[in-house]
Every structure is written in C-alpha cells, then in structure tokens.
Design a protein that fits this description.
The structure holds two protein chains of two kinds. Chain A is α+β, with helices and mostly antiparallel strands. In chain A, about 10% of the residues lie in helices and about 25% in strands. In chain A, helix 1 crosses helix 2. Classes of the chains: A alpha+beta, B mainly alpha. Chains A and B meet through strand 4 and helix 2 of A and strand 1 of B.
C-alpha cells in the first residue's frame, strides 16, 4: 500500500460540511451531518482524537459534495468510477479535506443496489483524512473498492486491521482495549433506526413549558454553530441558518445528559474555544460537557475561572479575539480559555460596552461575526471588534430569533388540544397517539 | 459495455497510472510502457484487489476496475498528499 505520509499533531480537530449534496431530497442536511459525525466517531472512539463540528469558514476537515473538475487536481468522473477522496494530514490548508462526488446517488439505510452508502464511504475517507492509506486487506474499511453498506452507524465496529493501523499513528484511546480482537462468530446486526445526536424527543411537552414569544431567557449560546435558547427546564434550538428546529421546546435533561435532575434552570452557557466543550453555569457551580454528555468530576466551582462564587449572568466568546467574556451585574471579566487563566486587569465596568445593558440574561457570538446581548425580551447587537451597540437596537428576541409575530403567544391554551400554532397562523392536526407524538424534522 | 471500455489501451494505462500501478506518463516517451511493465502493473492491481495474479485482463479484473472506488492511489507515493496545493 502507499505509505501514509503523515499524521495530525493536534488531537482536537474541527470539521464542517461546506457543500451539501445538491439532491437534498435523498439525504437531508441533518442526516448528512449526523452521518459525518458518526463516521468520524468511529475513529475517535478508539484513538485519542476528538472531532467537533464548527460553523464559519475555518475547519481542519472541510467536507464538500462536489462534482467533475472541482479545482483540486482530482476531478470526479460522474456516477460510478471514483466516488470520493480525502487529503492526507500535513501542512497544506487542504489537509484533511474530504470530497464526495455529488454525481453519485448517496444513500443511507438503502439496499446496496440503490446507491452508495454515505456512511461506509465517509468512514473510509476520514481514514485518509487522519493519515491512513489504502490496504489490500479484504476486511479493511481502507480497501479502495466500495464494498457496500456497513450497517448501522451506531453499531459499526472497525475491522481489527484498521484499529491497529490507527493505533500505530495515534496510540490507543484510554479505556479501549487494544488486545481485544473482534468476536469472529458475531453476525452483522441489521440496521436499526439512527438515533441522531440532535433532540428527537417523543415525549410531549409538559404543561409548564414556557411561551417562547413572551418570556426572557436564562441563557443563550451558540453551540456547534447553532443557537440555543434556554428557559427553565427547556430550550429551543435554531439551525445555523437561524431556523427554529421546533416550535416546541426540548427538555434540557433529555438532551444534556448528566445535569442534576433537580436543576431547574441554567445561568449561562458557552462553547469553549480551546476544545469546543460546552460549559454550563448555575450559581457557584459549572459543568463541562463533551458533546451532550457531562464530563466526569463536575460540577466544580466558578472560582476555577477566577470568578466570584456568586456565578455569572452571561458568558460568550468574542470572535474578535477568541477570548471568553463573563458578565456579572455591572462587571465583566476576560478569560483566556487556551491558557486557562483570567486576563489581568479584570473585572472592568460593563459601561465600557457602550449601549449594552447591565444585569444581562446572557450573551453569545454568532456566525456573522457579531456579538449578541440578551436581556428581557430584547437583544442588542455589537458588530465585529466594536464595543458599542449598533444603531437600531434593542430589537425583539421573539420576532427576530424565535419565529414570533407581534403579540403572538404559544401559550398552552393555544397548543394544548392537539393542534400546533405556527407563526404563519396555520393550524395542523397533531399525530399524537397514546400520549406520544412522532415528529419528522426535515430542515 | 464495461469490458469494451478497457479494451482501449489508453484507458487501461490511464487507470493503472491513476491508481499508482504504472509510473506517471514520462514527458519524453509519453506512455510508451513496455508490455512487461503493463503485465506487472495488472498483476499488482489484481493482487491488491484480491484476485489471482495472472497479468491477463480477464472479466473478473475488468469488473474490479469498474467497481466504484476511492480516488486515491493504491500503490504509489504519488498519492493525494497534503503537499499538493488546491488551485
């Protein structure tokens, strides 16, 4: 096999899908992202690598669905033939980039004859993106020829040959046994429904679910490029395109696994720029999450950050300098997440942020390069590296972020009889049955 | 139709070069590889693909070559290394 040229010397690698398949009716954006997530997880489950999805233009592994000649010297050739490729690690900015031929009929959970199983191909290509070359071993996922679907992404187990090759590059992830060979008597399990990392709760919202159009929020955060609005035990989620995923809020504890069940709200949330873990604050305590699972050893005290034990009102990462800002009452602090220490000279008076109110609910960065500050039902925008609120603010949170119209309410009275009130005023009969509701999100 | 495609010798050589079984075309001699070199390249490709190494372009070999696959080469160090810059 071709010798593997190099490997990544950092262990935290960012990824994003830059260009989605054009034929999006076959595989939606969320499904593509979920399949990429699981294909990368196959490798990070056994090797000490961590992958995190990011928004914006910077990512170690840029994923494109493209076709024909796409200006990298390796043109695709229409259906069949070459179906994908990836760039090995190295110094080039193209290192790790992974391209799929958009002329292929990409599928998931379809019979072999119906197209190209995206998960199987993605696992192979990400193998290249982290430094593996082709092998002639028949059972290896790094064999160059497409061999059909590999089954359920949640249950996929790399062939032993591939595990050995990745361990030779990066070592063994803690808690993984490198001596355990696969059970050869095991037969392949049939594919099962994909349990996506996103909220797919089938539990109907409780009566205490808040009204998103008529409330203030405990915390707001940009996580993996998406916006999360937290209120009480619930949160709403917006896609990177700022589309509300569901009018119904999801329950915090059903998604963010590991928070104490008696936690009735959070104060502030932010995604750490150093390793993309997510930090939740409540009073004097904080929790760190890897994806949506809490890390061991938490909660800990906010004094770890050099913050007072009274906690924080707001936390966000300023895109301008990649520093983390904490706001409490009329003071703010600047923290360096890469060095894990508070910058000298803080706290300072929030008056330095002209036009930003005191006693914030929370703040967040957004993909447009601006910072957003939330208080009550209103928000303020600060552009780029400015420290002054833009003209025209405050504006309505509900109207601009949460698909509310003027004077709209989605109170239980409007939502409790099996109908869903949409912002356009359309009424849709619910498919609720036996107290459960099956939802399909296609955006 | 799949088989006839690789009866075109240039297509065969292109394929073998693309995936690293033949050296890249020389600027002076073009693709004037010897018959022996071609046979050895086919054998290497057959071996990598798990087929019997006959050096003959039989049906199983042609089917293998038509199988959808990754663009990266199998046998050369002229792979898609990171030193190659995107245009």
């Amino acid at each position: 096999a071709a010798s593997s040229p190099t490997k990544w010397y950092k262990r935290h690698l960012s990824w994003r899908v830059r260009k989605f398949p054009k034929e999006s009716h076959l595989l939606g954006h969320d499904t593509v992202r979920a399949l990429m997530y699981y294909a990368l997880k196959v490798w990070s489950d056994i090797a000490p690598l961590n992958f995190h999805e990011v928004a914006g233009s910077e990512a170690d592994i840029q994923i494109d669905f493209t076709k024909a000649d796409h200006d990298d010297g390796y043109p695709f050739d229409g259906p069949g033939g070459t179906v994908a490729h990836a760039f090995f690690p190295g110094d080039s900015y193209a290192a790790g980039d992974t391209h799929f031929d958009d002329d292929e009929s990409w599928t998931f959970r379809s019979p072999d004859s119906h197209g190209m199983d995206l998960f199987a191909v993605a696992v192979h290509e990400f193998g290249h993106a982290i430094g593996l070359a082709h092998t002639s071993a028949k059972k290896s996922i790094m064999m160059p020829y497409y061999q059909g679907p590999v089954g359920d992404p949640l249950k996929y187990n790399l062939p032993y040959e591939d595990k050995v090759h990745i361990w030779q590059l990066y070592g063994v992830r803690d808690s993984v046994s490198h001596t355990a060979r696969p059970d050869v008597s095991r037969t392949d399990d049939p594919p099962v429904l994909l349990d996506l990392p996103e909220n797919r709760s089938t539990v109907p919202p409780a009566q205490d679910a808040p009204d998103r159009c008529n409330t203030h929020f405990d915390a707001v955060a940009q996580i993996r490029g998406e916006a999360f609005f937290f209120k009480g035990k619930y949160f709403w989620r917006l896609t990177r395109e700022k589309h509300l995923v569901s009018l119904r809020p999801a329950q915090i504890h059903r998604f963010w696994r590991g928070l104490p069940l008696n936690l009735d709200s959070v104060d502030a949330v932010y995604e750490r720029p150093s390793d993309h873990k997510i930090v939740f604050f409540k009073g004097e305590k904080y929790w760190v999450f890897k994806d949506n699972n809490v890390e061991e050893g938490y909660p800990r005290l906010t004094s770890d950050f050099g913050l007072p034990l009274e906690g924080v009102d707001a936390a966000f990462v300023w895109p301008h300098n990649d520093k983390t800002y904490f706001f409490m009452d009329r003071r703010y602090w600047r923290y360096d997440d890469h060095l894990r220490r508070m910058d000298l000279g803080y706290p300072k008076d929030t008056m330095l942020w002209k036009g930003v109110p005191t006693l914030l609910d929370d703040a967040m960065r957004w993909s447009d390069g601006s910072s957003y500050f939330f208080k009550g039902k209103e928000y303020w925008r600060v552009q780029g590296s400015d420290m002054e609120v833009e003209v025209g603010y405050p504006r309505s949170i509900g109207k601009d972020w949460l698909a509310c119209r003027e004077m709209q309410s989605d109170s239980p009275a409007a939502d409790g009889n099996g109908t869903e009130t949409r912002s356009q005023g359309q009424h849709h009969v619910s498919h609720a049955e036996n107290g459960y509701e099956v939802c399909s999100c296609t955006s | 139709p799949q088989i006839t495609k690789y009866k075109n010798m240039r297509s065969l050589k292109d394929w073998l070069s693309k995936f690293g079984y033949l050296p890249p075309p020389d600027s002076v001699t073009g693709q004037l590889q010897t018959k022996e070199a071609l046979t050895e390249a086919i054998k290497a490709m057959q071996k990598f693909g798990g087929l019997e190494e006959t050096g003959v372009l039989d049906e199983a070999t042609l089917v293998l070559m038509k199988t959808p696959r990754c663009s990266l080469p199998d046998m050369s160090d002229a792979g898609m290394d990171s030193g190659r810059q995107k245009r």
